[in-house]
């Protein structure tokens, strides 16, 4: 039997595949770049940059840094789809982990999204 974390990882990988390719959902988008600064109590801030191209999966969920976070994380899907619908090129903001409300050991992120169109 799989552990909770292992099962969550399998489900997340399936979600990624099920999301389809960017080229199918967003044919006018050539790239999406997401810059994320993780902030977690008691830990150094961590910068992560995610690059999506037309042949990437249209999956914009990012994991939390907390080891005990199973189904949480940060879902940037609404932000990115709204930007594309409005043909916006840049956005920034902050998000907290979605794991059933804020918890002391979970991460927060400050994000910047840049989208390039054809």
Describe the structure in your own words.
The chain has 118 residues and is α+β, with helices and mostly antiparallel strands. It has one domain. Helix content is 24%, strand content 34%. It is globular. The N and C termini lie far apart (47 Å). The model has no long low-confidence stretch (mean pLDDT 86).
Count of strand segments:
6
Poorly predicted runs are none
Q: How many H/I helices?
A: 3
Order of helices and strands: HHEEEEHEE
Helical amount: 10-25%
Instruction: List the domain count as a whole number.
Output: 1
Instruction: Based on Cα principal axes, name the global outline.
Output: globular
Gyration radius over CA: 15 Å
Mean pLDDT: 86
Features of this protein?
34% strand, globular, 3 helices, four-stranded antiparallel β-sheet, two-stranded antiparallel sheet, alpha+beta, 118 residues, 24% helix
Topology, please?
Blueprint: H1 4-18, H2 22-25, E1 29-39, E2 46-53, E3 61-62, E4 74-75, H3 77-85, E5 90-96, E6 108-117
Antiparallel strand pairs: 1-2, 1-6, 3-4, 5-6
Briefly summarize what is shown.
With 118 residues, the chain is an alpha+beta fold.
